[in-house]
Write a structure and sequence with these properties.
Length: 167
């Protein structure tokens, strides 16, 4: 009888500690939601601006093509977010025309947190400026004709917006 109590106590303690460790990981893993605003920006030559992501820590996004934009900051209107992000990342000033009738979302799991990204996209015209890289998370910027958009490997949250104008 003493042997069984001893064995149960040893196994029970190990199971208990394993349970605590696993729960500790999940209890403290932060869940985040981000609103991302993108711009389908067209220049006077009827080309669209694409950006290539540089993010080796996120293999699903690394070197994939995207539209220019970024995360909405607290208290900021989506249009303000887009104008700010485009200017910061590319040096361009844009005119926002309208919100595309589509939104996308995706869950990404990182080591420290889970993230739910909700993406909106605006149709825009380029007003002024010279395109240049200002963001270390962007590998390349490229103006592309509408007919060539299908040749790029887009992020899953961006592809539906490209499909809206490609079809």
């Amino acid at each position: 009888m003493i042997f069984w109590r001893f064995l149960f106590a040893r196994i029970g303690i190990r199971i208990f500690w394993t349970y605590l460790i696993i729960n500790d990981i999940f209890l403290y893993m932060e869940n985040k939601t981000k609103l991302v605003i993108l711009g389908l920006i067209k220049n006077k030559q009827n080309q669209y601006l694409l950006s290539q992501r540089f993010d080796p820590k996120v293999p699903e996004a690394h070197l994939k093509w995207d539209l220019v934009g970024g995360t909405n900051e607290f208290g900021e209107d989506p249009e303000e977010t887009l104008c700010r992000e485009v200017l910061e990342e590319t040096g361009l000033e844009i005119e926002i025309l309208n919100l595309l009738p589509k939104s996308t979302s995706r869950h990404w799991q990182h080591d420290e947190y889970n993230i739910h990204v909700i993406v909106l996209c605006y149709y825009c015209n380029m007003l002024s400026g010279e395109t240049h890289l200002n963001d270390p998370k962007i590998n390349d910027l490229k103006w592309v004709d509408k007919d060539n958009l299908k040749n790029f490997d887009f992020l899953p949250t961006t592809k539906p917006f490209i499909d809206l104008i490609s079809n």
